[in-house]
Amino acid sequence: MGANVMNAFRSRHEERYRDAAVGDGLGRERSPSRLLGRNAALLGAGAALAAAAVYVQMRTREAENTNPPAGRFIEVEGVRLHYLERGQGQPLVLLHGNGSMIQDFETSGLIEEAAKHYRVIAFDRPGYGYSTRPRSTIWGPQAQAELLHHALHLMGISRPIVVGHSWGAMVAATMALDYPGAVKGLVLMSGYYYPTARLDVPFASQPAIPLIGDLLRYTVSPLLSRMMWPAVLRKLFGPKEVPERFAREYSVWMTLRPSQLRAAAAEAALMIPAAFSLRNRYRELDVPVAIVTGSSDRQVSSRFQSERLHDEVRRSTLHVATGVGHMVHHFAQGEILSAIEEVGKELPQRQAVPRIHAQRIPLH
Question: Cβ atoms within 10 A of the Cβ of 22, count?
Fold first, then answer.
């Protein structure tokens, strides 16, 4: 009887082992070749990710070697901020949009034109260009405004005119709201000020997801973003063509570095909540505000963003560049410089400026 029990136990054990080895839990057998195929697929995927990581690292190093820091650095509250300073006169601070960096303002020609009359300070916002972005802070508009306020204080710069483009416009507006005596005036370009449904946010914010986002940023995301780059530019610059200088001088792979993709993804995720938190505060702005927008902006609605802001801000003027898209500073520099001058004079009236046709100022 003991032998029979042992044989029965052995038979059941062998049956379970056989099921685990060759079954898939649904009564189907897995052949050795099928198991080998699955393992080969996993190994192939791992090898592809490793190859992608090596390629991304190579392109990142190449981009940084080709585009070294053009400005200076200042350490503020554990953040290493990179900034470019040009010209003399009244201080003028430039804040770029999401996914961008100082190079955008350089290739537009705005820095060199403004530097003829102002002391221009263009910042790489946290995580962009050569500025760091510590994970310990949620870098919404308030946190960035506080950081830049302290940076300007350390630099001995008081009451600058602050120019913000796109996401940077929220930061600029927050600087004036939270530190009203420290800002002389605002020029807000192509800004996103009020929360709206954004179909691009779920995809754009994926690289900011903990763990999985880190894997994506160092492997797949830069490659996919590079494939989508022409379409992204068409949306940003359209209906105009991408300017030759931007196409020639702006570094694609500086933008696609893992560190910068993390910042861009985080700001994509923060965009709607940030606009929601600011939506009822704009009426508190008590500095001159020039609002500049393109009539054909495909990224944000001029009507529901810039025109609405103009309706709510008492000391504001509205400048609409006809036939221009989101990258208004590349095509309507003359109007932007006029808006900066207008704000510098602290004109108190509220008005809508007639629509203007985009023109380029000759670059010298």
Answer: 14
